[in-house]
Amino acid sequence: MKNAFEVRQSSIHGRGLFSLSHLAARKKIGELEGDLITQRQARRRVKTLRCIAIVEFEDGMALDASAVRNGFERINHSCTPNTYLRRFMHRVEFYTLRAIRPGEELTCNYGETHHDGKLPCRCGSERCRGKI
Q1: I need a labelling partner for 127 at 20 to 30 A (CA). Which of 1, 9, 77, 121 fits?
Q2: Domains, the chain
Q3: H or E, element range at 108
């Protein structure tokens, strides 16, 4: 059975991705889709983007999900996330960290970002670190 998701208004930032069904812990739920570009191209593009949806790989390549919309580019940051992302062979896969209830927003800890720790975090977590 394929998982069902919905993009809608988020209390964290803009629009987020929400689960419409129960998701079990430690299960793959989907992938970020986009254009494979070089990190150099990615770093030029982030200067023109309001919302950054780019994931870099160790080999100098990056996945730009800014133009391709499948919903997973809408997963907002949280300091206490319910999903994690796995970078593998130029793919960005999302997995649940714990069981997720229907209606719950999917969140991920972005880790190091193009924001260089200057963007205020709005996750609302008790353990919020304050910046992304």
Answers
A1: 9
A2: 5-108 (2.170.270.10)
A3: strand 107-108
